[in-house]
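Hey,

The postdoc asked me to send both predictions to you directly instead of through the lab channel. I've kept everything plain text so nothing gets mangled by the mail client. Protein one:
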Amino acid sequence: MSADPSSNPLSAPVAVGLPAEVTVANAREVLEQSLSRLDAAFVRFDLSACRHFDSSLIGIMLELARRASAAGRSCLFTGASPNLRKLAGLYGVDALLFGEGAEPGAEAVRSAA
């Protein structure tokens, strides 16, 4: 992983809030809207509003991280609730999405290697 882009003032993150509800019913729409924001070099996805979700949200986050990395860009996930972190842990992707050994509420930068 490269240096933390948030430490560079010229690469301030573009903030993108995800909706309060992310389920299989609206996952495609949420993903498409979020993918359109990956044009920026560094995007911060705010998950704090996500209170009603299913595993579709984990899939969206993984796809956003994958696409950002493939495009040589970085993304950051912030504001994850304890329940979202638990769900990510159940799927074994918490370290991938939130960083190795990250404390709950901590942020992780996903960037191109």
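Protein two:
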Amino acid sequence: MNYVDLFSGAGGLSLGFKDAGFNMLFSNEIDEYAVLTQKQNLERLGESSNKVISCSIEELHSKIIGREVNYEFQGEKVLNHGSNKLLYKKAQTLNSEQLKIVKRAKDIDVIIGGPPCQGFSSASKGNKSFHAKDYKNYIDDPRNQLFKYFLDFVGHYNPKLVLIENVKGLVSSSNYQQLIDNSLQNTGMGYFTYSQVFNSAKFGIPQVRERLFFIGVRRDIKNAEEFVFYLDSLLLGQAHKKLSLYEAINDLPPIRSNPKSLNTKKENEIPIGQEGSFGENESTLGYRELVKGLSDYVKNINTFKGKLIEPEKLYNHKSRFNNKDDLKIYSILSAGKTLTHNENKDALKLVKYSTNSFADKYFKLDPDKPSRTIVAHLKNDNNGYIHYGKVPRGISPREAARIQSFPDWYKFEGPLSFQFKQIGNAVPPKLAYVFARIFHNFLTGGIEKTIN
């Protein structure tokens, strides 16, 4: 069974679908480092890296579908959001070989993806217009229009199933959830739809991460409407006990905060295990020399298609620089308590800015509970993701990847800050696997195999 992954990021959704037995025909992503991560890991799995189509969705749309996208439901203006300018400036151009791969794609059973709607992210709620219920600015944000391209590809290929992942904020944002539902229902041959917010922590992933998922089932598929009816019980029936952060990352070797700013070059690294090490992007010592015992969780995330895979090296376990003021705050914070909590009054005294809008800027993760949501903002700093250990530092990309359920053999490419961004934007692979396995059962065995 074949699938296509649009807005694929670093490949979290794809990894879950591959694990469940699906074959990726191609993926599309604009971010250069996410593309590199996907390509390198495809090669590790013995697949062609050419399947990753590295260009903007707009260019791919123009070459394959060749018509303008309908924005009639949008506001009058489209905001030129600065955060997208650099992304598009660095975007690669679709080449002839990639175009051939896309044009050869046939018999697409599933289209998956996470078209960005960052304007609705809960991180945007500090904006006055959001508090004033002025949703027009959010609808006009071009990052909230990209799902129209996604739907055009659905209409073009008419897959049997569709899966869209997006931010929870869509639920309350000016009926946008209903807009996507209705749009999908009337796309191509038409789809029965289902949408629901799911918390990753309920699926054996050590992170409180609430995201909205849309599922479309093509109307002409046998028992399509019945399948949609059962989706609630099928998905909720996959729930597991909550896992703690300790269970996810405590076996990783200790490292310290990087002592110097801009100290990112490989030649400046101190091998993990030696005094003063702030980690390495690829360890000098072997993986099993550094990770002594594999917990059930680590065995689970490192298992792919029923086989436990152990990397030769430990990847992406490296700390960033933190200044002395931040490290002092880190060291006296109480784990799991907000900065304004009474237990953190001494730490609060050291903060040099107003905490009215940023009360959660400094936060030490609680080892006995699931982590807070891993977000792309980690690209900028670790202040909200402080390691619970005795040595004050922010979490490493590998620790963030563990929390997201990425296997240790999945290496993230690019500078450390962009590794964090890729991880924060991703769908947890083990959550993707839950959806993929249900889809696989339905497509191969029908409704009987799926619900029994």
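Summary for protein two, as requested: The CA atoms of residues 204 and 240 lie 5 Å apart.

Thanks,
C.
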